[in-house]
Specification:
Strand content: under 5%
Largest sheet: none
Bound molecules: zinc ion
Shape: globular
Helix content: 55-70%
Number of domains: 1
Low-confidence stretches: 1-7, 248-252
Mean pLDDT: 85
Structural class: mainly alpha
Number of strands: 0
Protein backbone atom coordinates (compact mmCIF):
# COMPACT_ATOMS: atom_id res chain seq x y z
CA UNK A 1 0.00 0.00 0.00
CA UNK A 2 1.67 3.17 -1.19
CA UNK A 3 -0.57 5.54 0.74
CA UNK A 4 -0.49 3.84 4.12
CA UNK A 5 2.66 5.65 5.24
CA UNK A 6 1.31 9.10 4.32
CA UNK A 7 -0.67 11.32 6.64
CA UNK A 8 -3.94 12.76 5.32
CA UNK A 9 -2.27 16.11 4.77
CA UNK A 10 0.45 14.66 2.59
CA UNK A 11 -2.11 12.98 0.35
CA UNK A 12 -3.80 16.32 -0.09
CA UNK A 13 -0.47 17.87 -1.08
CA UNK A 14 -0.37 15.33 -3.84
CA UNK A 15 -3.83 16.41 -4.95
CA UNK A 16 -2.64 20.02 -5.01
CA UNK A 17 -0.28 19.13 -7.84
CA UNK A 18 -0.87 21.01 -11.09
CA UNK A 19 1.16 20.49 -14.26
CA UNK A 20 4.40 18.67 -14.77
CA UNK A 21 7.26 19.31 -12.33
CA UNK A 22 9.60 19.61 -15.36
CA UNK A 23 7.90 22.92 -16.14
CA UNK A 24 9.60 24.29 -13.02
CA UNK A 25 13.11 23.38 -14.17
CA UNK A 26 15.33 26.49 -13.93
CA UNK A 27 16.47 27.75 -17.35
CA UNK A 28 20.16 28.51 -18.04
CA UNK A 29 19.33 32.24 -17.90
CA UNK A 30 17.70 31.87 -14.49
CA UNK A 31 20.65 29.89 -13.16
CA UNK A 32 23.07 32.42 -14.60
CA UNK A 33 21.35 35.33 -12.88
CA UNK A 34 20.94 33.45 -9.59
CA UNK A 35 24.62 32.54 -9.67
CA UNK A 36 25.59 36.24 -9.73
CA UNK A 37 22.86 37.08 -7.27
CA UNK A 38 24.33 34.59 -4.82
CA UNK A 39 27.84 36.04 -5.27
CA UNK A 40 26.81 39.20 -3.50
CA UNK A 41 24.03 41.20 -5.11
CA UNK A 42 21.67 39.63 -2.56
CA UNK A 43 23.36 41.97 -0.04
CA UNK A 44 22.99 45.07 -2.20
CA UNK A 45 20.64 47.52 -0.40
CA UNK A 46 18.77 48.27 -3.63
CA UNK A 47 18.18 44.59 -4.33
CA UNK A 48 17.08 44.02 -0.74
CA UNK A 49 14.64 46.91 -0.99
CA UNK A 50 13.20 45.55 -4.23
CA UNK A 51 12.79 42.12 -2.64
CA UNK A 52 11.10 43.62 0.39
CA UNK A 53 8.71 45.64 -1.77
CA UNK A 54 7.82 42.64 -3.94
CA UNK A 55 7.59 40.18 -1.01
CA UNK A 56 10.45 38.17 -2.51
CA UNK A 57 9.77 36.82 -5.99
CA UNK A 58 6.82 35.50 -8.02
CA UNK A 59 5.76 31.93 -7.16
CA UNK A 60 7.98 30.28 -9.77
CA UNK A 61 11.08 32.33 -9.00
CA UNK A 62 10.73 32.17 -5.22
CA UNK A 63 11.05 28.38 -5.29
CA UNK A 64 13.60 28.32 -8.10
CA UNK A 65 15.79 30.76 -6.18
CA UNK A 66 15.69 28.50 -3.14
CA UNK A 67 16.21 25.40 -5.29
CA UNK A 68 19.26 26.79 -7.13
CA UNK A 69 20.81 28.28 -4.01
CA UNK A 70 20.29 25.02 -2.08
CA UNK A 71 22.05 23.15 -4.84
CA UNK A 72 25.06 25.48 -5.10
CA UNK A 73 25.42 25.97 -1.38
CA UNK A 74 24.53 22.52 -0.06
CA UNK A 75 21.59 24.02 1.82
CA UNK A 76 23.76 26.66 3.52
CA UNK A 77 21.01 29.24 3.08
CA UNK A 78 22.40 32.25 4.90
CA UNK A 79 21.49 34.79 2.16
CA UNK A 80 17.85 33.71 1.80
CA UNK A 81 17.50 33.47 5.60
CA UNK A 82 18.57 37.13 5.96
CA UNK A 83 16.35 38.28 3.11
CA UNK A 84 13.26 36.53 4.47
CA UNK A 85 13.95 37.63 8.03
CA UNK A 86 13.68 41.15 6.62
CA UNK A 87 10.51 40.41 4.68
CA UNK A 88 8.70 38.61 7.50
CA UNK A 89 9.48 41.49 9.85
CA UNK A 90 7.54 43.67 7.43
CA UNK A 91 4.69 41.11 7.33
CA UNK A 92 4.46 41.19 11.11
CA UNK A 93 4.23 44.99 11.06
CA UNK A 94 1.36 44.80 8.55
CA UNK A 95 -0.55 42.07 10.35
CA UNK A 96 -0.20 43.86 13.70
CA UNK A 97 -2.13 46.82 12.27
CA UNK A 98 -5.14 47.45 14.41
CA UNK A 99 -8.18 49.65 14.18
CA UNK A 100 -11.00 50.15 11.66
CA UNK A 101 -10.84 49.07 7.98
CA UNK A 102 -8.65 46.18 8.96
CA UNK A 103 -9.27 44.18 5.78
CA UNK A 104 -8.43 47.13 3.54
CA UNK A 105 -5.32 47.99 5.52
CA UNK A 106 -4.09 44.42 5.35
CA UNK A 107 -4.85 44.26 1.65
CA UNK A 108 -2.91 47.46 0.99
CA UNK A 109 -0.04 46.39 3.21
CA UNK A 110 0.39 42.93 1.67
CA UNK A 111 0.24 43.97 -1.97
CA UNK A 112 3.54 43.77 -3.85
CA UNK A 113 5.08 46.99 -5.09
CA UNK A 114 7.15 46.38 -8.18
CA UNK A 115 7.83 43.37 -10.40
CA UNK A 116 9.60 40.17 -9.56
CA UNK A 117 13.32 40.92 -9.91
CA UNK A 118 14.02 37.60 -11.63
CA UNK A 119 11.20 38.01 -14.17
CA UNK A 120 12.78 41.36 -15.08
CA UNK A 121 16.37 40.14 -15.31
CA UNK A 122 16.00 36.69 -16.79
CA UNK A 123 14.61 37.47 -20.23
CA UNK A 124 17.83 39.38 -20.92
CA UNK A 125 20.01 36.62 -19.47
CA UNK A 126 18.20 33.97 -21.51
CA UNK A 127 19.12 35.78 -24.71
CA UNK A 128 22.82 35.65 -23.87
CA UNK A 129 22.68 32.16 -22.41
CA UNK A 130 26.44 31.70 -22.16
CA UNK A 131 26.49 29.75 -18.91
CA UNK A 132 28.77 26.72 -18.46
CA UNK A 133 26.90 23.41 -18.99
CA UNK A 134 28.17 21.92 -15.70
CA UNK A 135 26.78 24.92 -13.83
CA UNK A 136 23.39 24.45 -15.51
CA UNK A 137 23.29 20.79 -14.48
CA UNK A 138 24.20 21.64 -10.91
CA UNK A 139 21.56 24.40 -10.78
CA UNK A 140 18.88 22.09 -12.15
CA UNK A 141 19.57 19.40 -9.56
CA UNK A 142 16.69 19.65 -7.11
CA UNK A 143 17.87 16.97 -4.68
CA UNK A 144 19.29 19.39 -2.08
CA UNK A 145 16.02 21.33 -1.83
CA UNK A 146 14.04 18.11 -1.61
CA UNK A 147 16.30 16.83 1.16
CA UNK A 148 15.99 20.10 3.05
CA UNK A 149 12.19 20.12 2.66
CA UNK A 150 11.82 16.47 3.60
CA UNK A 151 13.99 16.88 6.68
CA UNK A 152 11.95 19.82 7.99
CA UNK A 153 8.52 18.77 6.75
CA UNK A 154 7.14 17.83 10.16
CA UNK A 155 7.49 21.51 11.13
CA UNK A 156 6.50 23.43 7.99
CA UNK A 157 3.36 21.42 7.19
CA UNK A 158 1.46 23.36 9.86
CA UNK A 159 2.25 26.62 7.97
CA UNK A 160 1.17 25.36 4.53
CA UNK A 161 -1.72 27.37 3.07
CA UNK A 162 -5.09 25.61 3.18
CA UNK A 163 -6.00 27.04 -0.24
CA UNK A 164 -2.71 26.17 -1.98
CA UNK A 165 -2.85 22.62 -0.58
CA UNK A 166 -6.61 22.28 -1.10
CA UNK A 167 -7.21 20.94 2.40
CA UNK A 168 -9.19 23.96 3.56
CA UNK A 169 -7.56 24.66 6.90
CA UNK A 170 -7.62 28.29 8.10
CA UNK A 171 -3.93 28.73 7.18
CA UNK A 172 -3.26 31.19 4.33
CA UNK A 173 -0.28 32.28 2.27
CA UNK A 174 0.00 36.03 1.62
CA UNK A 175 -1.78 35.78 -1.72
CA UNK A 176 -4.73 33.83 -0.37
CA UNK A 177 -4.90 36.02 2.72
CA UNK A 178 -5.21 38.99 0.35
CA UNK A 179 -7.97 37.19 -1.51
CA UNK A 180 -9.82 36.73 1.78
CA UNK A 181 -9.24 40.37 2.70
CA UNK A 182 -10.63 41.41 -0.69
CA UNK A 183 -13.79 39.40 -0.02
CA UNK A 184 -13.95 40.76 3.51
CA UNK A 185 -13.86 37.17 4.73
CA UNK A 186 -11.03 37.26 7.26
CA UNK A 187 -13.12 36.50 10.31
CA UNK A 188 -10.32 36.00 12.79
CA UNK A 189 -6.95 37.65 12.28
CA UNK A 190 -5.46 36.35 15.54
CA UNK A 191 -4.44 32.98 14.08
CA UNK A 192 -2.67 34.62 11.14
CA UNK A 193 -0.99 37.09 13.44
CA UNK A 194 0.38 34.43 15.76
CA UNK A 195 1.51 32.28 12.82
CA UNK A 196 3.50 35.18 11.37
CA UNK A 197 5.02 35.92 14.78
CA UNK A 198 6.03 32.29 15.00
CA UNK A 199 7.54 32.34 11.50
CA UNK A 200 9.47 35.47 12.43
CA UNK A 201 10.79 33.88 15.62
CA UNK A 202 12.02 30.80 13.77
CA UNK A 203 13.45 32.54 10.67
CA UNK A 204 15.33 34.92 12.99
CA UNK A 205 16.75 31.96 14.93
CA UNK A 206 17.69 30.28 11.66
CA UNK A 207 19.35 33.44 10.34
CA UNK A 208 21.18 34.05 13.65
CA UNK A 209 22.45 30.47 13.54
CA UNK A 210 24.80 31.51 10.73
CA UNK A 211 26.64 33.85 13.08
CA UNK A 212 29.84 32.31 14.33
CA UNK A 213 29.06 32.70 18.02
CA UNK A 214 25.59 31.11 17.55
CA UNK A 215 26.60 28.34 15.15
CA UNK A 216 24.77 25.07 15.65
CA UNK A 217 21.92 26.67 17.61
CA UNK A 218 19.31 26.56 14.79
CA UNK A 219 16.87 23.64 15.14
CA UNK A 220 14.96 21.76 12.41
CA UNK A 221 11.96 23.90 13.43
CA UNK A 222 14.01 27.04 12.70
CA UNK A 223 15.18 25.62 9.36
CA UNK A 224 11.57 24.82 8.48
CA UNK A 225 10.80 28.54 8.69
CA UNK A 226 12.91 29.03 5.54
CA UNK A 227 10.35 26.92 3.66
CA UNK A 228 7.48 28.50 5.63
CA UNK A 229 8.52 32.07 4.73
CA UNK A 230 8.89 31.34 1.01
CA UNK A 231 5.53 29.54 1.03
CA UNK A 232 3.81 32.35 2.92
CA UNK A 233 5.18 35.09 0.64
CA UNK A 234 4.77 33.44 -2.77
CA UNK A 235 2.43 30.44 -2.40
CA UNK A 236 3.09 26.73 -1.92
CA UNK A 237 2.09 24.97 -5.11
CA UNK A 238 5.54 24.84 -6.75
CA UNK A 239 6.98 23.15 -3.66
CA UNK A 240 4.23 20.52 -3.66
CA UNK A 241 5.03 19.77 -7.28
CA UNK A 242 8.71 19.36 -6.51
CA UNK A 243 7.94 17.01 -3.63
CA UNK A 244 5.25 15.08 -5.52
CA UNK A 245 7.71 14.38 -8.28
CA UNK A 246 10.08 13.07 -5.65
CA UNK A 247 7.46 10.73 -4.18
CA UNK A 248 6.60 9.38 -7.63
CA UNK A 249 10.23 8.80 -8.54
CA UNK A 250 10.81 6.88 -5.36
CA UNK A 251 7.65 4.79 -5.79
CA UNK A 252 8.24 3.90 -9.46
ZN1 LIG B 1 9.46 35.96 -11.40
ZN1 LIG C 1 -2.09 29.91 -0.71
Amino acid sequence: MKTSKHSTRQILFREAKRGKPEALLPSPGEIHYLWWYMQGSIMDPDVRRRLRNAWGFCARHAWIALWVESSFRHSFLMGPAMVYEDIIEKAVRVIDTRGPMKNLQILAGLRERGNCLLCDMVSEENKRNNIRPDRVLRGQDRSELRRFARRTRGYWEQWACGRCSGDDTWVRCRLHLMEDARNGSISEITHHRSMLHELKKHITAYSNGFRWELRGTATAHDMAAMIGCVGWCSGWKPLFRILDHDEQTRND
